């Protein structure tokens, strides 16, 4: 797979939805930065963070202020009360402008080349549900 190249100008655009509740700041932004670093950024229309009614102070106003550094590429949607994974995913889906939606956990990390094969497969057959393989961060060591 490392030797494959993809014509990103012909791939669909993607919005990425990350659901979280009480997520650790460092894990959440490790996921966000890995997505943007791995790119290709021109295919990523937005990263939608859906907060399923977190109560941590750091996930309140500090989060609102911090995401400004992304210039609108990272959006934050807050649910006023805990709704659960499926309602949160559907809410995030409604805020995506890309042609494809990818749902990820708030404590994952992606690597270069993770997105292009998914989008290529969907481009070839839009009835495909492609599932990314992402690295899960260990809760106790963050490895």
From TrEMBL:
Coiled coil: none annotated. Signal peptide: none annotated. GO terms for cellular component: Golgi apparatus. Keywords: Disulfide bond. One of its GO terms (biological process) is protein O-linked glycosylation. SUPFAM superfamilies: Nucleotide-diphospho-sugar transferases. The keyword Disulfide bond applies. One of its GO terms (molecular function) is polypeptide N-acetylgalactosaminyltransferase activity. Transmembrane segments: none annotated. Residues 16-141 form the Glycosyltransferase 2-like domain. The keyword Oxidoreductase does not apply. It holds the Pfam family Glycos_transf_2. PANTHER family: N-ACETYLGALACTOSAMINYLTRANSFERASE, RICIN B LECTIN DOMAIN-CONTAINING PROTEIN. This is Glycosyltransferase 2-like domain-containing protein. The lineage of its organism: Eukaryota, Metazoa, Spiralia, Lophotrochozoa, Mollusca.
């Amino acid at each position: 797979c490392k030797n494959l190249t993809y014509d990103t100008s012909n791939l669909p655009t993607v919005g990425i939805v990350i659901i979280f509740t009480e997520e650790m700041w460092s894990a959440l932004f490790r996921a966000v930065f890995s997505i943007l670093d791995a790119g290709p950024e021109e295919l990523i229309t937005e990263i939608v963070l859906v907060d399923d009614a977190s109560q941590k102070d750091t996930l309140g106003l500090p989060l609102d202020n911090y995401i400004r550094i992304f210039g609108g590429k990272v959006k934050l949607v807050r649910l006023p009360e805990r709704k659960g994974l499926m309602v949160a995913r559907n809410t995030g889906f409604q805020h995506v402008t890309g042609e494809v939606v990818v749902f990820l956990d708030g404590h994952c990390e992606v690597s270069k080349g993770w997105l292009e094969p998914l989008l290529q497969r969907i481009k070839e057959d839009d009835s495909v549900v492609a599932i990314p393989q992402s690295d899960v961060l260990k809760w106790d060591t963050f490895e």
